[in-house]
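Hello forum,

I keep getting stuck at the same step: I have a sequence, I want structure tokens, and every attempt I make locally crashes halfway through. Rather than fight my setup again tonight, could one of you with a working pipeline run this one for me? It's a single chain of 150 residues.
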Amino acid sequence: MQIWIDADACPKPIKDILFRAAERLRLMLTLVANQPLQTPASSYIKTIRVASGFDVADNHIAQSVNIGDLVITADIPLAAAVIEKGAYALNPRGELYTQSNIKARLSMRNCMDELRGSGVNAGGPPPLSQNDRQAFANQLDRFLAQHLKA
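Reply #2:
Ran it on my machine without issues. Output:
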């Protein structure tokens, strides 16, 4: 198993949690972004810089992910793509996207996108809170405990 991070929009506290997990569990962690990234020196952590452009990082992750990998992303279309390939997706607030919930999340995202396109200011997500960080860390720990014992 490898962990992939959609790193352009991933909050630093979430990256820090993932850096510690990669070191502790000796898991490969790959950050994909269209800008330079700073990471701790580690043989388990690497970065891939892709060209700038709409969905370039997402497309790279979707093409590179393997069955059983974990992708950290708040991008619902990317989450749907990796789930379709047999991988897993976890958002930075601790929600694990699954076959059973991704279609509803994608429909809601498309609806909100249409509202914004028609001029309705639907706002964005609130800033990442300490509770969000804890929810992410807890869900990551549960996921890794379940999937690494196999």
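The longest helix spans residues 130-148. If your local run keeps crashing, start a new thread with the error log.
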